[in-house]
UniProtKB/TrEMBL annotation:
<protein>
    <submittedName>
        <fullName>Uncharacterized protein</fullName>
    </submittedName>
</protein>
Amino acid sequence: MPWNYRVIEDKGKFRIHEVYYNDAGEITAISEDPIAPEGETLEELKDALEYYFAALKRPVLKKDEIKFASMIEDD
């Protein structure tokens, strides 16, 4: 299941969450809690931050407007 980090606006706060997609590219789930950058090495932390910066380039999702799709496509 593909995923990426996205900025999600909820009640006036902007946070980064993991967002999961089905094969059709539709949102199927988001992480319950925001994600904090971390790494076991400084290099891993730098890599994690690159994913965060990529999230800032994508459109912001409004939590109360997200329509969740099924994880599997119906035949």
